[in-house]
Amino acid sequence: MYNNTSVVITEPYFNFTSIQESMNEILFEEYQFQSALRINAGSLSAHHYFHTNPSELCCMVVDTGFSFTHIAPYCRSRKMKEGIRRINVGGKLLTNHLKEIISYRQLHVMDETHVINQVKEDVCYVSQQFYKDMEIAQAKGEENTAMRDYVLPDFSSIKKGFCKPREEMVFSGKYKTGEQILRLANERFAVPEMLFHPSDIGIQEMGIPEAIVHSVESLPEEMQPHFYRNVVLTGGNTLFPGFRERLEAELRALVPAHLPVSVVFPANPVCYAWEGGKLLAHNPDYDEMVVMREDYEENGHCICEEKFDI
């Protein structure tokens, strides 16, 4: 079917052997790819970073996506397994939490995952001063600069929800237009705050800044400054306005004063790993990294275990 095609497929760190073997079977037996490379998304991001910054030796990939967040240190494109940290907080948890808040306070939206995910992407942001923003969000009327009105889609005249411009907001009384409105204030920054303090909603795990420091401190001391200087953000959650600035500020507070801290925010953090895969596919060493179908048919799963450093 795909017998002239090579495939690159990503999987999480420390994936179960049973899932890896099933993936090998699907790729080679069902779809019959000519060759395959199973790799972590963070490895592709690191390859991209080292390709564009050849003078750097180390980087710390922060991959915060839909299901979870991974913090993974790389040195010369090799991942350092002892430093990998996983936080069970991702975009799905944030969307579900926002659904619960809105359902409790305003409108039952527990079945509207897609719509509320769009609300989250359109109006949420990362607070730089959480307690100060909380005070602002409690103010009444126009003094509440955190408040936004979100027009929900009705899927006939309004196909996609949108945020009302501040100057069109009605602070007393109701809108005459008949649109269905969500009024959001502290939800806008309290939801992304879970990436920094999961314990706020009872998840007993480290936030991203703490996990980065925990990871770096598990690595050789002479390498640590290089990781703090090259923290690379990937994944959809990094698109929240203020995410990079907040992470850099919190890291700066946690890291020893004599070490420089720099957080790199790529132009497209969602596709950063994909672009790394594209670069890798054109790499002269690519053919050495993949497993050929003939090799798999001859040696089975063990050849994949040897080749893929997952």
Number of helices: 13
Gap between N and C termini: 27 Å
Portion of residues in beta strands equals: 15-25%
**Biggest sheet architecture:** 6 strands, mixed
**CATH arch. level architecture of the largest domain:** 2-Layer Sandwich
Q: Residue share in helices?
A: 25-40%
Mean pLDDT: 89
**Shape call:** globular
Helix and strand sequence:
EHEHEEEEHHHEEEHHHEHEHHEHH
Provide a descriptive summary of the structure in words.
With 310 residues, this protein is α/β, with parallel strands linked by helices. Helix content is 39%, strand content 15%. Strand 3 and strand 4 form a beta hairpin.
Summarize, please.
With 310 residues, the protein is an alpha/beta fold.
What would the keywords be for this entry?
ATPase_NBD; 12 strands; cytoplasm; 13 helices; Nucleotidyltransferase, domain 5; Actin, Chain A, domain 4; 310 residues; Actin related protein 6
Please render the helix and strand layout as text:
Blueprint: E1 6-10, H1 17-30, E2 35-39, H2 41-52, E3 58-64, E4 69-75, E5 78-79, E6 85-87, H3 91-105, H4 113-123, H5 130-137, E7 148-151, E8 162-163, E9 181-184, H6 187-190, H7 208-217, H8 224-229, E10 231-234, H9 243-254, E11 263-264, H10 272-281, H11 286-289, E12 291-292, H12 293-299, H13 301-307
Parallel strand pairs: 1-2, 3-10, 10-11
Antiparallel strand pairs: 2-12, 3-4, 4-5, 4-6, 7-8, 7-9
Helix pairs in contact: 2-10, 3-4, 7-9
